Amino acid sequence: MNALRHLGRSIAALLVGGLCALIAFGLFLALAWLPRFSASTAYKTVALFLVIALSVILGGYVSGRLAGRSRLGHGLALGLILGLVAFGYVLGAGWLELLAVMITGLLGAAGGWLAERTRRRIPASGQS
């Protein structure tokens, strides 16, 4: 029963983390393309890459925090899933898309690592 609870919590953490990443992507992209110089193609390309990176890191962080255990693994899983959906399915198979999937996996793992680093540490009883 405990394993089933952990599985449900992991799935919920990945779903909520993915939803947060998608919402953050839309908000960050809308804000990034507001300035006057957003008509430049180079600016839009760089802004898009930064927005994708920030969104995947945020999604990995949320997923890791909600999972409660194996935070880095949950962030990595979220990054790989988002990368497969965004790049593998939409763009097709190729070495560049495979590289993009691995990079999004690493970005998700970075979010999971941040979740691990920000975890509250509770001192043992008798210590202050």
Explain what the structure shows.
80% of the residues lie in helices and 0% in strands. It is an all-alpha fold. The model has no long low-confidence stretch (mean pLDDT 82). Helix 1 packs across helix 3 and helix 2 crosses helix 4. The protein has one domain.
How would you briefly describe this protein structure?
With 128 residues, this protein is an all-alpha fold. It is 80% helix and 0% strand.
Low-confidence stretches: none
Order of helices and strands: HHHH
**Could you give the distance between the termini?**
36 Å
Number of helices, where a helix is a run of at least 4 consecutive DSSP H or I residues: 4
Average of pLDDT: 82
Q: What structural category characterises the helix and strand content?
A: mainly alpha
Based on the model shown, name its key terms:
128 residues; mainly alpha; 4 helices; globular
Q: Topology, pairings included?
A:
Elements: H1 2-32, H2 41-67, H3 71-91, H4 95-117
Helix pairs in contact: 1-2, 1-3, 2-3, 2-4, 3-4
